[in-house]
Write a structure and sequence with these properties.
By secondary structure, the protein is an alpha/beta fold. The protein has 14 helices and seven strands. The longest helix is centred in the N-terminal third of the chain and has 15 residues.
Length: about 325
């Protein structure tokens, strides 16, 4: 199964608009005869009329079968340096739209909210400092923190007082200071985060260890952002091979990355979050059939994107710092 989510763009200009995602879901239903594709509807409560945006949430929830809302608290600040919001409405002078948006999501009956936090592109509104207070204030909502607060250029090591305000540690700090414990209503998602970390196994072990310890082994969700990077097979294989060493477990209190925990992260946690029974959505195919599909595809299991620092800089300049 997979979830299709939104991008930090105006919906009518987005390559992942609601219409495009709904079409992809329809195609999958025709092919697989089940609900294998889950949709996130984009919400932009801080741009334009708040009431109009809340009404639009009503319309989308009626027109489409959606599983969650996707929001970018750093939009449009990411692009123009102004105009973000906070989930907990803590800052004076910033639009007070977070609480009303969350309340509306719960009222509509779609209480799962996916929020981009981390990979900020320089915007302070992508910080996860507001996650803990918002989760505490809204216990009936479920907050899926896309990227888990991870930032490039930050070394993921142990959680300490000195490092509690950087990278993934920011999310942990927000939860701890708000009194939100493991396996409550905050979930850590790993899209792009593991793609960056899988080349540095020790950092990956620290990141996973911290999230399993503080967010909870029932609330860490697999993600690949494979729409940007091509086939996620390399990420899948890397996570299967990743271990948290006994030394790191003993020194920092990380739990072991057991087969049971991997199964939870790979899909069982998300299935529970979205109310999916994996036993009722089997995908029957033989080894020969899947190998035939792989041979017929125009591309292989390659990972796409820049291969050198110069190519990466050119890519960022061309796309204003956002994968495209």
């Amino acid at each position: 199964m997979l979830s299709l989510s939104a991008l930090p763009l105006e919906p009518e200009h987005s390559p992942l608009s609601m219409q495009v995602m709904a079409h992809a879901k329809h195609v999958a239903q025709r092919l697989c005869h089940d609900d294998r594709v889950l949709l996130h509807a984009q919400a932009i409560p801080n741009v334009g009329s708040l009431q109009a945006n809340l009404d639009e949430m009503e319309r989308k929830s009626t027109q489409y079968r959606i599983a969650a809302w996707k929001v970018f608290t750093h939009y449009p600040d990411l692009w123009n340096g102004r105009g973000g919001f906070w989930l907990d409405d803590h800052e004076r002078g910033v639009p007070k739209v977070g609480a009303k948006f969350i309340h509306k999501a719960v009222e509509i009956g779609v209480p799962v909210i996916a929020i981009h936090k981390g990979l900020s592109g320089g915007s302070r509104f992508a910080s996860p400092i507001d996650v803990g207070p918002a989760a505490k204030q809204h216990p009936h909502a479920k907050f899926v923190i896309y990227h888990s607060g991870f930032e490039t250029g930050t070394t993921e090591g142990p959680y300490t007082q000195r490092t509690k305000t950087v990278g993934v540690n920011r999310l942990i700090t927000s939860l701890r200071e708000a009194g939100v414990g493991p396996n409550e209503n905050v979930y850590a998602e790993l899209g792009s985060t593991f793609w960056y970390l899988m080349r540095t196994p020790t950092q990956a072990a620290h990141a996973f260890g911290k999230l399993l310890k503080y967010v909870g082994e029932d609330n860490v969700l697999w993600g690949t952002d494979s729409i940007f990077y091509g086939s996620p097979q390399d990420q899948i294989q890397a996570f299967r091979a990743l271990h948290i060493t006994p030394e790191l477990q003993d020194r920092y209190g990380y739990p072991p990355l057991t087969k049971r925990v991997r199964h939870k992260v790979f899909g069982l946690n998300a299935a529970r979050l979205y109310g999916v029974d994996p036993a009722t959505v089997p995908c029957h195919f033989s080894r020969d059939e899947i190998e035939g599909i792989r041979r017929d595809l125009p591309v292989g299991n390659a990972t796409y994107g820049p291969a050198t620092p110069a190519e990466a800089r050119a890519h960022r300049d061309h796309h204003q710092g956002w994968p495209g």
